[in-house]
Design goal:
With about 625 residues, the chain is α+β, with helices and mostly antiparallel strands. The chain has 16 helices and 23 strands. β16 and β17 form a beta hairpin.
């Protein structure tokens, strides 16, 4: 934990993040060119505008000790140049679905937060800024969290005393209302994804609108929904400050806590403020102890260390500066009791919680969340979506892996998912599954990796251990690997396979799996470097099967927790008899069909192939 939590101390933390970026800002030049050669789906020109604009999230929350009056004037003058069509530095007119729409809110916020400097500009400069921002009402904007940008930009134009569109605000709010689900959760557009965009985008922007609307009676429902959302979103956070690694845009890092930061700035009960303060400080502390800064002090592209493998195609060098949204709690004035209130630990949370709108069950163990996800099938075109949304379980204790290639298990890195191969060379990861049911006791899904192959999976969510049941129907032979939790690999890590169990140990930590039914072969996958977003080197315990044609039933157990024989044996205590599976007080009915075949041992399958090859050679 950051020991001294005064407002001054937190301002110094913010200064440590924005000052290195300011070194790349030239007086009144409305771009910031950060040292990187990364390309994105938008131009280098817009990359430089993005870096400049996202710096303004932090600059908007900074006081005069972080950014002097002269520095603010330089930034405002840069905005004036960037919005002036007659300037050589003009940012350009907006087009439909332009990335510039995303960068407008921090620009509008910074101008409003420095309205005195804006009012000192000449009339032409004032009008240029207002005219450029007003363009958001003249182009098509994606019907997802981007609708919030229309609301915020118009509201800040209103507060600046400039032309704005109340109709655009109302239409955008109507569109946002259509995305509301229940229990405080939104859908980010017409997708199956329920990720951090619900918290650090939709809720964050609506709470900012609540703070600056001038009509809080109208916006009270957004605050009410945020408080309702907090009741389940708190399950995503660990006691050590880490948070659930899940979904896209994870390079925004401590934007994970941005929701709690801006919620603390709203009028909420003292206990809620204390909870917010604790989550914000612990998450920020955890992040600042990871390898997230380069030699210039700039936030890198990556997660727990610099890593471009898992990035989205819209992640530019300045993209991680979205994390500065997390400093919204600095809007709370120095005299507020918040700065003297004690930051509390996480409340007592249920061992297992169904979050139905999020299509997940979260089980907690030793302060860590294990999120069992079912139904967030990858419907968008972002990279590695099957890795970010469709694994069986996610946890900050293990992180998750993204694939480098499909030509070996080491390159595929199939942690907490299924991988199959029809030829022994190319592997497919589980994706585009159909969710059958989502309950706190069990999750059922179906995967059809080929027209003549069906894999029905029943997951019994729990932590630190859980059970997966797979019912396979196939008209073609294939190999299947059931992957466990990724485990950091270093000089102290040991791994072994025996008696149907694969286990890895390192100090007080363990990751293991066991074939309960089906006689699978335990294996250890030495994943290639940098595929896990938290561990530079990792290994994955797994169970391997080979199926010929027919129907098969396999049951596997997976564990991620302490190196405790008692814990492992307790979490593995599963009874399957007469079509009934009993586990952790739950009884699950499984089709008791005697036509199930026993999976063909992979080792024996390889031996048969070798014997056949020898026979062919001998016959020649």
């Amino acid at each position: 934990m950051i020991e001294n939590t005064t407002r001054e101390t937190m301002m110094n933390v913010l200064a440590g993040l924005i000052n290195p970026v300011m070194r790349f800002f030239h007086d009144e030049y409305p771009y910031i060119s950060l040292p990187s050669c990364v390309a994105t789906s938008y131009s280098d020109h817009i990359q430089k505008i993005e870096s400049f604009a996202r710096l303004l999230w932090g600059a908007s929350f900074a006081d005069e000790n972080v950014l002097s009056w002269d520095e603010r004037k330089h930034l405002i003058n840069a905005i004036a140049n960037g919005t002036n069509p007659e300037s050589n530095s003009y940012w350009g007119d907006l087009s439909d679905f332009s990335q510039l729409v995303v960068e407008m809110p921090p620009i509008a916020l910074f101008v409003y937060r420095n309205i005195e400097i804006y009012n000192e500009l000449d009339i032409h400069a004032q009008e240029c800024i207002a005219r450029w921002l007003y363009q958001i009402n003249t182009v098509q904007v994606s019907v997802n969290n981007w609708q919030c940008f229309i609301v915020l930009v118009n509201n800040f134009l209103r507060l600046m005393g400039r032309k704005y569109s109340e109709q655009s605000i109302n239409t955008a709010l109507d569109n946002i209302e259509k995305m509301y689900l229940s229990e405080g959760w939104y859908s980010d557009g017409l997708t199956n994804q329920r990720d951090y965009y619900v918290s650090f985008a939709i809720h964050y922007y609506l709470l900012m609108y609540h703070l600056y609307s001038g009509n809080q009676q109208r916006t009270q429902k957004y605050l009410d929904r945020a408080i309702l959302f907090a009741d389940s979103f708190v399950y995503w956070f660990s006691e050590d400050g880490s948070a659930l690694p899940f979904g896209r845009s994870l390079t925004y890092r401590f934007a994970q806590m941005a929701f709690w930061s801006i919620l603390a700035a709203c009028e909420v009960p003292v206990n809620t403020k204390r909870l917010c303060k604790g989550i914000v400080l612990r998450n920020l502390h955890w992040w600042l102890n990871q390898e997230v800064l380069d030699q210039n002090g700039l936030l890198t592209l990556g997660y727990a260390y610099p890593n471009q493998l898992f990035l989205e195609y819209y992640n530019a060098p300045g993209s991680p500066l979205w994390a500065l949204k997390g400093f919204a709690f600095l809007l709370i004035p120095q005299e507020d009791d918040f700065w003297h209130e004690q930051a509390v630990d996480l409340p007592l949370l249920d061992h297992r919680r169904l979050i139905r709108p999020a299509k997940m069950v979260i089980s907690r163990h030793k302060g860590y969340p294990y999120a069992f996800v079912n139904g967030q099938s990858a419907g968008n075109a972002f990279g590695h979506t099957e890795c970010k949304y469709e694994k069986f379980v996610y946890s900050p204790h293990a992180g998750f892996c993204v694939s480098k290639s499909y030509y070996s298990l080491e390159l595929l890195a199939p942690d907490c998912t299924l991988a199959i191969s029809f030829d022994g060379n190319v592997f497919l990861s589980r994706s585009h599954t159909q969710a059958v049911s989502n309950d706190a006791d069990k999750q059922i899904s179906v995967w059809n990796p080929a027209p003549n192959v069906s894999i029905k999976t029943i997951v019994l969510p729990d932590a630190p251990g859980h059970i997966r049941v797979h019912e396979i129907k196939t008209a073609v032979p294939f190999t299947m690997v059931d992957g466990g939790f990724a485990f950091p690999k270093d000089h102290g890590t040991t791994a072994s396979c025996s008696n149907g169990t694969a286990i890895m140990l390192n100090g007080n930590c363990a990751s293991a799996c066991h074939s309960l039914v089906g006689g699978g072969e335990p294996i250890i996958i030495n994943a290639v470097p940098n595929c896990n977003i938290q561990h530079k080197q990792c290994m994955i315990p797994a169970i391997k099967y080979h199926f010929k044609t027919g129907k098969y039933l396999v049951i596997d157990w997976f564990y991620d927790g302490e190196n405790s024989v008692a814990d492992m044996e307790e979490s593995k205590n599963c009874v399957f008899n007469e079509g009934k599976l009993r586990y952790q007080g739950r009884t699950i009915e499984i089709e008791n069909d005697r036509s199930y075949k026993r999976p063909y041992p992979v080792i024996e399958h390889i031996r048969k192939i070798k014997r056949s090859i020898r026979r062919i050679k001998n016959s020649l």
